[in-house]
Amino acid sequence: MIQERKLLKRITAEVLAGNPAWCVIVGKRDWLCPFCGEIGAAGLRMDDSLELRILQHLVSGCPKFTGVDQPPLEQEVLQRRAAVLDLARRVRRRLARDPVWQVRDRTGGWICPFCARTTGIPLELPGERPGGGTASRPGEPEEGGGEQAAGDGPGERELRRIVKHLLACPGYAHGEGRPRPLEELLAERERAERRQRLERLRHKLRERAEWRFRDMDGQWLCPFCAEPTQITFDRHAEPSLELCDQVWRHLEGCTAYRQLEGKPRTERYLKDRVIAINRARILQKLERKLTRRAIWQFTDADDVWYCPYCGEATEVRLPAPARRGVSRTALEGAWAHLASCPAYAVKRARLKPKAELRAIVEQANRQIRLRREVARALVEDERWSVQDAFGSWLCPYCRKVQKSISIHRDGTLLRKTILQVVAHLHEQCPRYTEGAEPELSRAELQALLAPPGPGAEPNRGAAVPAAPLSVAAAPPAGAATAGAAATAVPPADWVRRIDAEVAALKSQVEMSLELERSLEHARSRQLRLLPRVPEIPGFELGVVYKPCSRLGGDFYDFVQVSEGELGIAIGDISGHGLEAALLVGLAKKLLEVHGRGRSSPGHTLVLGNADIYPDLDSRTFVTVLYGVLDTRARVFRFARAGHNPLVLFNPARTPRLQVVDCKGMALGMVAGSEFFHAMEEVEIRLLPGDLLFMYTDGVTESMNHDGEEFGAARLHEVIARYGAEEAEYVLYQVEKAVHDFREGARQRDDMTMLAIKVLP
Predict the structure, then answer these.
(1) How do strand 25-26 and strand 622-630 relate by DSSP bridges?
(2) What is the dihedral of CA 178, 179, 181, 184, to 10 degrees?
(3) E strand or H helix that includes residue 587
(4) What is the pLDDT of residue 315?
(5) What are the distances in angstroms from CA 668 to CA 409, 605, 644?
(6) Is residue 160 classed as helix, strand or coil in its secondary structure?
(7) Measured between alpha carbons, how far is residue 577 from residues 529, 548, 573, 623, 669 in Å?
(8) Element housing 572 (H / E)
(9) Which candidate, 549, 504, 496, places its Cα nearest to that of 527?
(10) Contact status, residue 218 vs residue 234, Cβ threshold 8 Å
């Protein structure tokens, strides 16, 4: 008590004496403690006793006060501290009311209204709650700008950082500066953010492998949509701000950038994508050369293409490229040759002169003419078919036996034989002249092979002549023995035997004709039973159905599930022909019975499998892709029972072509819960321009003469090229591509395709 009286006495004396250290007032109503430099008495009123308020602070609140005799802080320190506290109060009021003081960057950092620079100080404006909503968009001024509730606005730590920045800010100039207009601050913020954004892009283009891919023409590949852009990118140069700006403009319009939320695709995916893009571009350039430039169109009489670099015949057949175009097989074959051509691989490869290529092709055509002439002569001209007893061919011009050239006794003419004869005539025979006829007849040529007479010196190179294959050897007259008469067939028995054989053959022919008529009748009936393609407002449907034999094992069907819902099925019975055709009707009927009233395609397939499983043997199964099209909600739900996956194409989607797959086993493979647990449904929200493409394996497994399959990659390429067109046109182009790929080879499996186009 004595200590407090002594302290009160000193306080009264200092205040009455007007000591500046004891009389510092902040904001007209707050007293500044001369010992701790903080507000000791806040909100003073006229009727308050300043001395008692000071005593209360020093005794119970001041952390720096130690005794009555303690000297206060220096006057300059106290004045500076008072100015800081006064500035903090004014800053808080400005932040609560003035939109110019409320501008923030995209990360929520405060932007100084004097220097227009982002400070990085996190600023919570009045009306905002941590973890909650905001009264206005971050970085934008609030509407109204009135008084805020106590406790709102920035915290003390952030407030001190703002004050510290202002005291050092040249634009603030210790209170002499004027804040910039709001429009100028917002514009400066946009410029600053643009610079920061471009710097971040520059770092990624310089350091991140996913951002540094480009195609063969030097065009930058977007790491999100994986498509080449019109932006020229040099990986060995420092990315410029102009380049970064072009990249950002692309990203602003890139749908994949938004869908992937700024996370690029993997490096492996992008690398494969660049390879595919470069290959497609190379093939496109090669196709233009093959169809437009004469130096690339040299072919011989067999339509074999000759490389314009090495001048050699290739394995590519190129009939009339300028008029008929270039098939995919020929295009890939030409590129495969160039990839292994040593003349093309050298740096700055040069094309051969046209005159040289023309001479090479003329020489090849001469060989082809000779080969055709030899093939015709060996079949039609008897002078060319003379051979010795061992089947070795006798040249009708030089009249020497060619022991390495053998003509089969059964009359079979092999390609190897033709080539051997051509090589002999062109390279070895001294007396052959193109177009000239042999001088000797067949009899004279055979006489050359006759053995020498008695006493003559044997011809070491001669051989015993062979009897004509078409004439049976007969015994000499009068040489019949007694046993021959016993084994001879009586004429009457011989006639009866011939009649019986003729009758049996006639019966077999009639049975074959009856079977042919039955199969033809079954084929026409099966084609008549094909369902009609429905017409649906807002959608376009198309179908292609091509069985490989009279009766097909593929099928498609449409089921009216409910009003506004249509079931669509495409399937394939294992194998083809009569057995598969018998099961087609059963599979379609099961889908129709179980599909009515059921919007779940997976449930329909489960019920269908339960019914068909007991009727199939272990080697027979049915693959089905069954979906339900909701025409009102524009939704397609489907399930896949071991069938080929669905292909979705739309230029507006990213990626443009998608293979939509799901789990599922073929009907008839397993029964019960195992089939149920293997079934999965997929739902697609349809967009205008979507193309849904379904097909059987007869499309992708179509083969050419070399045994090469058409494959899913070629199918996807055709869909990607024509998928924006009508459904019927897409089906036509796919069918044409498969037909051109086979190049006349026999269709070995049924082929069915179904396309659905969503109209705008």
Answers:
(1) unpaired
(2) 120
(3) helix 578-595
(4) 87
(5) 53, 11, 17
(6) helix
(7) 17, 8, 10, 16, 21
(8) strand 565-573
(9) 549
(10) yes
Nearest 5°: CA angle at 636, between 632 and 642?
155
Q: How far apart are CA 303 and CA 190, in angstroms?
A: 64
Q: Is the dihedral of CA 646, 648, 654, 657 positive or negative?
A: positive
Per-residue confidence (pLDDT) for residue 522, from 0 to 100: 54
> 64-71 long-range CB contacts below 8 Å, 24 or more apart?
64/33, 64/35, 64/36, 64/37, 65/33, 65/35, 65/36, 68/3, 68/6, 68/7, 68/10, 70/35
**Which residue type is seen at 164?**
K
Name which of 355, 368, 365, 367 is nearest 295 in CA terms. Answer: 355
| Closest listed residue to residue 134, CA positions, set 181, 102, 111 | 102
User: How far is CA 515 from each of CA 257, 492, 505, 527, 556, rounded to the nearest angstrom?
Assistant: 63, 35, 15, 18, 27
pLDDT tens column, 675-720: 888 899 999 999 999 999 999 999 999 998 888 999 999 999 999 9
Q: Report which residue type is found at 195.
A: R
Listed in sequence order, the residues at least 6 apart from 606 whose beta carbon sits closer than 8 Å to its beta carbon are 675, 676, 679
The span from the CA of 572 to the CA of 621, in Å, is 9
Helix (H, G, I), strand (E, B) or coil at 132: coil
> How many angstroms separate the Cα of 203 from the Cα of each of 132, 198, 220, 378?
34, 9, 16, 76
| Tokens 């195992």 sit on residue | 674
Q: pLDDT tens digits for 503-559? A: 666 666 556 555 555 555 555 555 556 888 899 999 999 999 888 765 677 899 999
Q: In what order do the strands lie in the sheet with 539-546?
A: 539-546, 751-758, 691-695, 646-649, 657-660
CB 727 within 8 A of CB 755: yes
pTM of the model: 0.41
CA 639 – CA 637 distance, rounded (Å) = 7
Band (pLDDT 50/70/90 cuts) for residue 494 is low
Q: Are 667 and 543 in contact (CB under 8 A)?
A: no
Tokens of 507: 């019966």
Q: Burial, 262: exposed, middle or buried (Cβ in 10 Å; 0-12, 13-18, 19+)?
A: exposed
Nearest to 671 by CA among 608, 579, 749: 608
Interaxial angle between packed helices 601-612 and 578-595, expressed in degrees from 0 to 180 and rounded to the nearest 10: 130
**Burial of 466 per CB tally in 10 Å (0-12, 13-18, 19+):** middle
Residue 494: burial class (beta carbons within 10 Å; 0-12, 13-18, 19+): exposed
Please name the residues in contact with 554: beta carbons below 8 A apart, sequence gap of 6 or more.
Answer: 545, 547, 570, 571, 572, 573, 576, 584, 696, 698, 750, 751, 752
CA of 380: how far to CAs of 75, 194, 367, in Å? Answer: 130, 85, 20
Strands 109-111 and 392-394: unpaired
The CA-based diameter of the chain, rounded to the nearest angstrom, is 173
Q: Are 340 and 334 in contact (CB under 8 A)?
A: no
Is pLDDT of 489 > 50? no
The pairing of strands 392-394 and 313-317 is unpaired
**Which letter does DSSP use for residue 426 in this model?**
I
Packing angle, helices 75-97 and 156-168, rounded to 10: 110
What are the tokens at 297? 């169109």
